[in-house]
Amino acid sequence: MRVSIIGTGYVGLPAGAGLASKGHDVTCVDIDEDKVNAINQGDCPIFEDGLPELLEQVVSQGTLTATTDTTNAVKNTDITFLAVGTPMRDDGSINLDIIKQATRDAAEGLKEKDDYHVFVVKSTVVPTTTETEILPILEQESGKTAGADFGVCMNPEFLREGTALHDFLEPDRIVIGELDDRSGDTLEQVYNGFDAPDELHDSDGHRSSAFGDAPILRTSLRAAELIKYASNALLATKISFINEIGNICKELDIDVYEVADGVGLDHRIDRSFLDSGAGFGGSCFPKDVRALIHFAEEQGVEPALLRQTIDVNVKQKTKLVDQLTDRMDVQGKKIAVLGLAFKPGTDDIRKSPAINIIDALKTKGADVHAYDPAAEDNMRELHPDITYHDGFEDTLSDADAALLVTDWDEFNDITLEHIRTMNQPLLLEGRRMDHDLPDENTDGITWP
Ligand code: UDX
């Protein structure tokens, strides 16, 4: 099928390359001309595992091209995915300005088309947005009628940063919110032959028949919108839940990871997203939970649990600093911060606990020294006045304490020799690592 995708960020580009690799003819659209030029040369402008190789391949085969011209991209394709950003306003609500502008541009293309076209909202939008904000713009600006001249779908993404391409190609499920059968049937054709992840093999290692293909769920437009928010809110709540249990564990000298393993063996609960630590960050969980809180309030529903998910997380982010200041006055002390990205495998620092930790350390007068294998440049923009190092060895040397904030694999290579180069040999861990350091030199945020 001829597919256009508006937005070449963490969602649009993996989706574009993924669909091109499945045999579709893909046109990616972005307003950023530099990005479009880079993509057309096969250069990947974002940090995503496997994406540079696949992008180079599909661009050289001619199955993916990029353009700044939304109208023509829509006009010359059969289906359009809207995958632009939905930034958060100060009050937690989502800002639809970018979505609306992109929709207006797309509607111009619809206007010039004679054939049936399906418009698919992939951006995360609160329930009813597709029906009440996007669909009317499409109709007004194109002069056409939804359901007759064109179809509308809402197709949320569940991509994790760093593994977005893999998640796109092997989804747990595909949710198709549809205006009508014809819209949904057309979108379902795009996802023909998408497998579920390998983890969903049965106990003998065979792909379970139930999961041969990724399950496709057809819903209303607004249910699809809410499925995205409910999924992220539940995952975020699992993390805040295990962090609260972890804070109890810490008081009792219990290892929260033993507790999580025991709890997670119950198949009704599942072990995933029960890794306790310094809290969740990233571009999705904090923003989406806040947006859902704001939306619930607008509906007159008190989102008590969701508020607690955020509150627990806010406190958790600086708990390591509290634990450090219980042990020492950090004024003028060299404190090493290991890891700045909100999770390993990305250079993204959005809502990373490292930001709150550095803020708190600076407020208390500490001399902050930081290292991250990928996210240093991004953190420099926010905190230009701390000292950055090229490796953890340097960062630890002569430090009065170290805080481990992101679970990059390389931090498992920290040995007692490295710890002995510190002024005071103490590593406080905000993420669970797999190393052989002695107990007297380490302490966990929610484990002994
Ligand atoms: C998340 C969702 O997983 C994805 O489906 C959605 O589309 C976007 O938001 P992402 O933000 O890329 O993806 O990262 P994820 O791997 O889910 O981790 C989010 C945060 O939670 C990270 O800060 C991570 O360190 C933290 N986390 C995750 C925990 O603290 N404990 C866990 O058990 C899992």
Radius of gyration (CA) equals 24 Å
Query: What separation lies between the terminal Cα atoms?
Result: 55 Å
Overall 3D geometry?
A: elongated
Given helix and strand content, the structural type is alpha/beta
Determine the number of helices (DSSP H or I, runs of at least 4 residues): 17
Helical amount among residues, as a percent range?
A: 40-55%
By CATH, the superfamily of the largest domain comes out as: NAD(P)-binding Rossmann-like Domain
- CATH class identity of the largest domain: Alpha Beta
Can you put this structure into words, describing what you see?
By secondary structure, the chain is of the alpha/beta class. An 8-stranded mixed β-sheet has the order 3-2-1-4-5-6-7-8, sandwiched between helices. A 6-stranded parallel β-sheet has the order 11-10-9-12-13-14.
